[in-house]
Every structure is written in C-alpha cells, then in structure tokens.
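Recall from the previous chapter that SMILES is a line notation for molecules. Here it describes pyridoxal-5'-phosphate.
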Amino acid sequence: MIAAADINITKVERSKLKDINLENIPFGKYFTDHMLEVDYEDGEWKNAEIKPYQPLLLAPSVAALHYGQAIFEGIKAYKNAAGDAYIFRPLDNFKRFNVSAERMQMPQVPEELFMEGMRMLIELDKNWIPQLEDHSLYIRPFMFSSDEMIGVRPSEKYKFMIILSPTGPYYSAPMRIYVEEKYVRAVPGGVGYAKAAGNYGAAMYATAEAKKIGYDQVLWTDAYEHKYVQECGTMNVFFIIGNAAITPGLESGTILAGVTRDSTIALLKEMGFNVEERPLSMEDIIDAHKAGILYEVFGTGTAATISLIKELRYKDYVMKFDVDSWKTAPALKKQLNAIRYGQEPDNHGWMQKV
Ligand SMILES: *Cc1c(COP(=O)(O)O)cnc(C)c1O
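With both inputs in hand, we obtain:
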C-alpha cells in the first residue's frame, strides 16, 4: 500500500505568489504553486506526486467526461495570529470522500494518502494561506475515472488530486429563497448524500429559474410530495422554532452530511437549544411562522459558513425576516470563526495542525 514516503515532490522554480495580492482574493479563482496527483491502476494507487500546478493532458474518451464518475471535497485551512496553519476537521471530509467514492463505484483512497498528502501539499504552499481577517485556504480534493474507453462500466483507472486556492472573505448577503416544488436535488436511493460532481450540474437549471424571478437560491423539497424540506442550494438548512433548532435528518440519504452542519449542531447544543434532526414539513414551518415562533432560518457550508435567509417563499405565502435582530446565527458564525482562527479554545478537537 502507498505511504506518505512514496509521495514524490517536484517544486516550482519560481513561485507565482510574488505576482498575486492575497487581500480580498476572490473565491476559487487562483491556485497555489503545487498540486497532488495520484493514479489508480491495476487495483492499486501509484505515481503519487506533488508537482507544479499545471493542466492535465487527457484523452477525449476519458470516462469521467462521459459518465460522470467524479467526486470532490471542500475543506479550509486557516492561519492564526502566530502564523500557524490549521485545517478544520479534515478527517471528517476524508471519511465522507470515501462514502462518496463507494456510492459512485470508485476505489477507496487510503487515509494516509489523503491526510498526509494534503498536509504535505499545504506545508509546501503555506505562504499562500492569507494571514488576514476572514481569509483562508480552500482545499479541493477530487477524484475522477480516467479510463480511455467509452463503454459504460466502472473505470479501471482513476485520478485522485488535491488543488489549493487562497480565498478572501466570502460575503454572502442575506438570501431570498424560493421553495422548489418542481425540480428535485435528491431522492431516497439516489446520490444526494454523496459529494458527486453531477449533483451540482443537475441543480443549476432550477437555481437559474429561481434567479430569473428574483430569488438567490432554492430550498429543495422531497421528491415524492414536495412537502418536507431538504437543503438550501448547496448548503444544509436550519430552522430555529421556539427553543428548538431543527434540521433534516440524514437517514433518508437525501441530505449531504455537512461538516459545518455537524459543527453547528454541536455549538447549538452548547448554546442550550434542543437540536432535532428530523423531517420538517413546509406546513409546520408556516404554522410556526403564523404563531410568531419561527425565529431564524439559515444555511451552513464550508464556503460561506453560515448564510442568513431573509425571505422564504412557498407557493404564494411569503415569510420575511428582520435578520438584523437575529442573535443565534450571527453568534454561531462568530464562534465558529473564533475557533478556526485560534481565538477561542478548540474544545472539540476540530483543528488539525499542518
Ligand atoms: C458540500 C455540501 C454541503 C456542505 O457541507 P460542508 O461539509 O459543511 O461544507 C451541503 N450540501 C451539499 C449538497 C453539499 O454538496
């Protein structure tokens, strides 16, 4: 089995960092000097390399482009005031990566290759982590099938890669959300719980339709009845109703098990909320709104952390919220960030030193 010692390192001759200003750098546009690339062939991982970030040379017949065996992860690393780099909960992303791989009939990536490959890559490109407020390094591990063969079957060859992108504050304005009743993101038995590339492609049309009528995102509902809420765009969703914090449970396989979701649940419990992971219907949400006890609605995800929802429209019923008066979601965001930047103790063991 491949070990971290087998990862071959070739460094750039000249760093691109000199040409780039990391302050307020846009999300996902610039990449660091190096990348990790590993091949899966003949039933094993081989040719593990950290090398200069560069284009891939692929045959037009490469299987992933045709049949979509492709998965990814999104993780962030932060620099604290002392300049030390930490990654937020990477082992959870590693485990989820292999859950996605299994669902897409792709090989498992060994823990040491994923974790140590990521750590070595970040170590090498450490200077790319902005030491600025609300800035971070976005880590993008991904895997795709690489057989040069257009027969429909699981590939025999795969590539596992990690690329890194420095990123500035991800400002997300409070969102207007349209409750989707025609298109669906996930069905029981489907791939909704996997971070599969196709899930994103399949969601874009419905999102574009909602944007046409003035909404920022859709709130997905269940495929059978369009009655129960699932996720908000590509974020998990939370509703504060009375002294309960409610988010859809993971058991039906239609919800992506967000690491931010899990962290939010832990912090909400510490704040004294009764956290309920269970089916939540639009009817119950509207009843709570009418009773005046629907206090806050927000999305959670690695990119934006916590995104406030200022308006929710279900059929002709519109719920508007005075987000400036909210306490819980802003407090969660503040606390999560304080842990990430090392300003508050990491009592949960979430931060892993690079
Ligand atoms: C990645 C993702 C999330 C958020 O997961 P985090 O681990 O918190 O970033 C939520 N929903 C979907 C559909 C996703 O792909």
